[in-house]
């Protein structure tokens, strides 16, 4: 035997035994080869990848331990046999392997099938690469390395579903909750899930009169169908039993109630009649949903921190598949996001309504001026998207025929600002009867507000009208100056120096007295009339002073004209106007 070059068969099964038997009389380089071979075998047997060596007739000559474990077949069983003989359940293309033998180019293969070992995957899959083994250009066989990728397809499918779910939620964030209106938000949710998740959807929300009490505290919960979406045919059919705007008292033992009480969704796929009857409650309702070809339902609560504020009904009909676990997860995510928007809209609506009612109540009760002074006021609330502000105005009759005109604006918006406004209004009414000059009234109000801890500062304008002298005395606490609408169709800003807002306790308010001829209109206004986004305040004031108005008609007409000329569309902030005119004697 030529010991300078081990025979090719040493690469295959039994080679280690041959080498070991030859070590006694072998030259040093043969001993070195034997050690290298043992190192190679330890690497191959230790790798988690399946490694196999095949001869030029595609018969196994060596498999490592990973190949044996993966197949469930002893390594010795492979020797001298083909894959079809050892593992008939695996599908492989021998044509590709012969191409590797012929041209020597490595090739990748995807192997599928079953083996004799247990696996969590019903259909297994491997990714393999085959290389040609050669000796001085002569093909000896192939070496294949394979790794199992059975779970990879499921992993990629799950990853794709996760990406789709995140993309849907990102889209939902821009399409659900675009306004602060409950009905609109519910409609956006219903429109979004149809037809992506359901053939028909309806959003049921708690009746606003009972929404503050948790559902478990009541035997019946009143829900309103706030929004519905779907094809015209299915909506028409279901309108026979439930349509948008209808109210329903939901009992404690219903699926809807349990869904809300537990905060967990309820899935009814391919509903049998007895199960569907428990959901829809009456035989007539069951006949209606069957006529609409509804076969599956999904009920998802609208969760908030306190308790669910409603439930979303999702229906599938006709040829649509039943709901999957993935559908339930997506529906819960959408419902959770929508619930936050609906709850915010509900809270905003409540606060906006309360503040508006308070503000209107106060504005609707201005004091009566003296008979020789005409007074008119107008309040224009901000657009729906804005919170109610703290504007107020007042007209206070004082001794000696004088009348004090008041215009103020509390900083901030909402119910708190409206409450602070009522405090300012009451305080100024109290101070006005003292008969003090207007600048001293503002200074005292500034000090008292700071002392009692009102947490909202306010601008304020006081104008004391004295018919006997035909004058008015003006003092400002950071408020825009009044204007005088003259009979000659001109408009002038009165020259008043603004002092610090009320609540700062800085003082330093000044007063100025100017003539007020009979028939000319003194106009006080809140900053909402002249302050606009992306507009310079001086330019807005010029628009006011450029007005040419007929001031001889009723004061209400004058105010209507001012609003028509200066306010375009929904107001960005509350606008309050207070006009006064001395009657001609």
Residue fraction in strands: 25-35%
Strand order of the largest sheet: 2-1-6-5-4-3
The radius of gyration over CA amounts to 43 Å
Number of helices: 17
List low-pLDDT spans.
1-13, 210-217
According to DSSP, the number of beta strands is: 22
Task: Round the mean pLDDT to the nearest integer and report it.
Answer: 85
- The termini sit apart by 142 Å
- Give the biggest beta sheet: 6 strands, antiparallel
DSSP helix fraction: 25-40%
Globular, elongated, flat, extended or rod-shaped: what is the shape?
elongated
What would you call the structural class?
alpha+beta
Molecular structure report:
With 585 residues, the chain is an alpha+beta fold. It contains 17 helices and 22 strands. It has helices at residues 15-22, 28-46, 65-71, 75-78, 83-86, 94-103, 150-175, 182-193, 232-238, 255-262, 273-280, 283-291, 325-363, 415-432, 438-452, 537-545, 555-566, and strands spanning 50-55, 60-63, 90-91, 107-113, 124-135, 138-148, 200-206, 220-230, 247-251, 266-268, 294-301, 310-317, 373-380, 389-397, 403-413, 458-466, 471-477, 483-485, 491-493, 511-515, 521-525, 575-582. Strands 2-1-6-5-4-3 form a six-stranded antiparallel beta sheet. The chain has a six-stranded antiparallel beta sheet with strand order 9-8-7-12-11-10, sandwiched between helices. A hairpin with a 2-residue loop joins strand 5 and strand 6. The longest helix has 39 residues, at 325-363. Residues 1-13 and 210-217 have low confidence and may be disordered.
